[in-house]
Amino acid sequence: MDITYQSIAVILRRLERQFGGKMVEAVSLDGIPRDMKSAVALAHKKDDRLRKEFEKWAVLTYTNNRSVINDKKGADAGIDARAYFKTTKRDNAKIIFQVKSGGVNRGDIATLRGDMGREEADMAVLITLEDPSSPMVKEAKAAGQFKHADMGRNYDKISIVTIREIVEDGRRLEIPMSEEVLKAAKQLESDAGQLDMLDH
Questions:
Q1: Cα–Cα distance measured from residue 112 to residue 119, given in angstroms and rounded to the nearest whole number
Q2: Regarding predicted confidence, which is higher, 188 or 39?
Q3: Closest CA to 163 of 114, 117, 140, 130
Q4: Is it true that domain 31-199 has CATH number 3.40.1350?
Q5: Residue 173, Cβ neighbours under 10 Å: how many?
């Protein structure tokens, strides 16, 4: 039992590694959004900690629990999570995520493009509770495409995903993720956190 979706995601990853995907599908989870009504309720909680759980749930669900949640506050506060995906057998690239529960507009996409540059990320995803406007979609498409040589296909550099698509259509991130890179990223964040504690 655990109250945070981030902790639940860790357990689900461990179960999947040990027993496979079918085991994870058989696990019954209570207290997480399963429809739009419950997703909206979680997103609009007045408690900041519970609103953060909405962001974690959205990203981890969309990435099948294969992203690293950003718990830091500061210059990169706009980035809610990061993940790493395979580009070749030996190379990986970064994808960043931002979750919005309301008030989205074209400027959010422009900001995300700037965040990609700062983060040296090859791709970005905006997960939104609201449907995107036409200018938002146009701005995202203007970012161009990432050519994935190993997969033999192109992906939009900036994708817009709605909570409705995640909940009702089962939309998930399609890019092959690197579990080993995810572990390494988690270790780096853990080491950085320990160094921060030593500095204080």
A1: 10
A2: 39
A3: 130
A4: yes
A5: 22
Identify whether the C-beta of residue 159 lies closer than 8 Å to the C-beta of residue 140. Answer: yes
Domain boundaries, the chain: 31-199
Whether the Cβ atoms of residue 39 and residue 129 lie closer than 8 Å to each other: yes
Q: What is the pLDDT of residue 122?
A: 95
Average pLDDT over residues 183-196: 52
76-122: pLDDT as tens digits: 567 999 999 888 878 889 999 999 998 899 999 999 999 999 999 99
Question: And the tokens for 55?
Answer: 């962001």
Report the DSSP beta bridge partners of residue 92: 86
Tokens of 98: 């931002």
- Residue 15 contacts residue 23 (beta carbons within 8 Å): yes
Place of tokens 């690197």: 178
Decide: 97 and 83 in contact? Cβ < 8 Å. yes
